[in-house]
Design goal:
Helix content is 84%, strand content 0%. The chain is mainly alpha-helical and 183 residues long. α2 crosses α3, α3 runs antiparallel to α4 and α5 crosses α7. The N and C termini lie far apart (82 Å).
């Protein structure tokens, strides 16, 4: 048993030192791909979490460790970008389908205005960090309760409500000029 404790301590020390040495470099690398600091911070934590969960030995003094972490970070970034693209495609398809089914006709003028509204709505939703955006989508498109989302996100239901309210207010602010009375 003492050897196991020693090797666990050694693994944890090497992991900790590797994190301290490489986390900022990985963050900057991800920032060059994603451009959003909040998301890059989450993704860089994900890189190290993946390594830790798989008990991959890191040598903080080896250049190979940095190269390995860059490879994990690149794959993590590309996975994120693929998920984001699919999410945006689903949102656009959902809104377009809703427009057509609600209108019952293909009035070009109204479709143009509705298209502008949908585009503004998508842009507004996508302007939020991924964690807030996913809360909003889960709550409003999949009708999940705040408590259920809070359990998955490890935050309070009140925080979920705050995020949702914040996003709804920004959506209202960005869309209000489409619905103001002219005259």
């Amino acid at each position: 048993m003492p050897n196991s404790d020693h090797s666990d301590a050694c693994y944890n020390d090497n992991f900790r030192l590797s994190y301290l040495k490489f986390s900022k470099v990985i963050f900057r690398f991800l920032k060059g791909i994603i451009y959003d600091g909040d998301i890059c911070e989450e993704l860089s934590h994900d890189v190290f979490l993946k390594v830790y969960e798989r008990s991959i030995h890191l040598d903080p003094h080896s250049r190979r460790t940095m190269n390995f972490l860059f490879a994990v970070a690149k794959n993590t970034a590309f996975d994120y970008l693929r998920r984001k693209k699919k999410e945006q495609e689903k949102l656009r398809a959902l809104y377009f389908l809703k427009q057509i089914t609600e209108s019952g006709r293909y009035d070009v003028g109204n479709m143009y205005i509705k298209g502008e509204i949908v585009s503004t709505l998508c842009d507004t939703i996508n302007s939020f960090p991924e964690n807030k955006r996913s809360v909003f989508i889960e709550k409003n498109f999949y009708n999940r309760s705040s408590a259920s989302i809070a359990g998955d996100a490890h935050v309070s239901p009140y925080r979920i409500k705050q995020i949702n309210d914040e996003m709804e207010q920004k959506i209202r602010d960005n869309l209000k000029h489409y619905f103001e009375e002219e005259g």
